[in-house]
Amino acid sequence: MKFSKKRTLSLLVGLTLGLGAASSAYSQQSLQDVMKARGLTQKDLLAAAKTYTPTGGRDEYIAVSSGGQSGQLIIYGIPSMRILKYVAVFTPEPWQGYGFDDESKAVLEQGRINGKLLTYGDTHHPAFSETNGDYDGRYVFINDKANPRVAVVDLKDFETKQIVVNPFFKSEHGGAFVTPNTEYIMEATQYAAPYSDDFVPLSKFNEVYRGGLTYWSFDKKEGRIKKENSFVFELPPYSQDLSDAGKGPSYGWGFTNSFCSERYVGGIEKGRPPFEAGCSQKDTDFLHVTNWKKAAELVKAGKVKKEKGMYLIPMKQAIAEGLLYLIPEPKSPHGVDVTPDGTKIIVAGKLDTHVSVYSFDKIMKAIKEKNFVGKDPYGIPIIGMKTALHKQVQLGLGPLHTQMDSRKCVAYTSLYVDSQVAKWDYCEGKVLDKINIHYNIGHLVTMEGDTVDPDGKYLVSLNKLAIDRFNPVGPLHPQNHQLIDISGDKMQLLYDMPLPLGEPHYVVAIKADKLRPEIRYKSGWNSREDKRSKWRTRAGREKIVREGNRVDVYGTLIRSHITPEIIEVQEGDTVSIHLTNLERAEDETHGFAMYSHNVNLSVEPGKTVSATFKADKAGVYPYYCTEFCSALHLEMQGYLLVQPKGYKAEGGFVEGQKYTKADYEKQVKTNVDTQAVIDSVVAFITSHNYKDFPPVVALVEDATDQLGFAAEAKKKAEAFAKKGDWQNATLWAGQWWQYQVKTADLGLRAKTYLEEHGAKKIK
Ligand code: RUQ
Ligand code: CUA
């Protein structure tokens, strides 16, 4: 899209006069006509009315979904199911410049394992930070199953700030789950492996291979995980699975499932039965019960030894100190979920039609009375299943995960094999309702459903297969997240959302008004380190500094130019381009892409980012802004000139066009006309109660800035005109007009906003 000056001007005028005519054009079709034409039922219409969000409308809840093997998080709104953002976590992502700018590369670098830079993750379970067991809207944590790591995402800007690597594990699954005040983030292993990085034959599986459970210590003030304060429970080589932290009466305790307590090691290629047979032989596996509070006290008292930079609690010590117990649980368990009041622990076994509800009271009583039925091969005391059970409830085939309702004792459990959600009462032990989903549900989420105070209202079913739900797009199908209304007695299916990014496992959903994301960064901000960047640059202070073979470019971005526009370096130089976005306006992000250097940046208002690369080949490398930031966005461009060694400069700037006095006067005339448009818009705005609308106030501020720039350019134009330098006078008059166009653009946006929001005339 490129407008001639004339067209842009007429467009501006057209917009000014033409608004408000379109609304009555809403077609004459009746609701009945549409229903008939699209084959919709009354029930469909009701469902649509419950999810449809008119333009400009907001969602009541914000969901954070794992992105599976995409290594990202997916943010969407509920009930509209509109995707708002992918947050890059373990995987480079060009839109956000993640893994392209030096600052975010440093975050990915933290996730190196054995010296290798990894460029994906298998994300499973996002967890919001909590205060008193309730979401506080500050952080979200996410685990990587494939490469045992946990990342911290700050909800101020939805950016990844930190990645920590588990130095003991080779795989994990039972994370991220937080304790009620985000004291710790739980991360349990999945596939047992030696704690060292050495080769250990499978014949030593029982003695040397280990599971484990890490409690990562989190510093809420700093917003970072502190590895040095974190501790790990050494656990037997059972395949630990999901975890959950106790709350209320069970505060201080953690619960971690396991499967394959048979400790089977596979070997199908040797004619042995496969893992799936060897790992599902026993009727029960073990629920691990850990006392993290007491463990933290031992750590504090200096009673736990450090290894690999964190505290490791050997099984022997955990047993001796009463930190670790096992309870049998049926069969190939998957999900473990603590009830909102913290009194019960619900375990779902993939191969059992029941869900087992354990009583925390009964568990504590057994521990107190040392009422154990024996020990496992590692000496861990086992509490009898019957001793600890509150109830078992038959729900259906393949129960996996459970979420809670706002109504007391009501829970929802996913049934993978049945492709259903079961609504049931865990106090009385009875099924209340079932609904079919499409197909093969894994996790499910209710609104704030794993807090001490769930909201109920909606449930999202995270289905593993979509099969026939959407238009086919080849053998690889999107996932299907289904929105279900759970506000009434009967569950009602509302909407199918295809999710085409990895295989999401778990979603958490928070009340939208708990989030207060920022609109802009403080100027010159390194967002990954949360401090002012040493490379920040202010307007007019742009410079290029050479030191030996290193060239630092201190640049800025603002509608619609990059400063500098020409960067000259020499072959072999290491070039570091540091860009600060000078904009204060909402949504005025600029991008920066350059030919053949894998340089691609996203610079949100206020941010400073850097791209460092070697200019190893003499040549001409155009660069430009990748975000359509204004009408003259295409002109937001420049050249990196890499001069061959020994190059001697010749010539200066060549201009393709010569301008005359007439050109200058023509431009000035255009500018005067544009000013009239601006004045009319300003008159409209100021004659209304625009100060009652904060977004309009922000637009007016930005417009005022732009008009100030216009005035500066006007001065320059007039000074050159006075000297009879029509070349520079015309060009600066053009720049003056550019700022006017930006002003008009903002003004028109403000005017539209006022009209759409029923602003009142005040004079
Ligand atoms: S999930 S397989 Cu059921 Cu939580 Cu990862
Ligand atoms: Cu900045 Cu386009």
UniProtKB/TrEMBL annotation:
A single Gene Ontology CC term: cell envelope
Gene Ontology MF annotations: metal ion binding; nitrous-oxide reductase activity
Enzyme class: oxidoreductase
Protein's cellular compartments: Cell envelope
Domain EfeO-type cupredoxin-like residue range list: 560-642
EC number: 1.7.2.4
Domain of life: Bacteria
Signal peptide: 1-27
A Pfam family the protein falls into: nos_propeller
Keywords on record: Copper, Metal-binding, Oxidoreductase, Signal
Main localization category: other
Name of the protein in its database record: Sec-dependent nitrous-oxide reductase
Organism: Sedimenticola thiotaurini
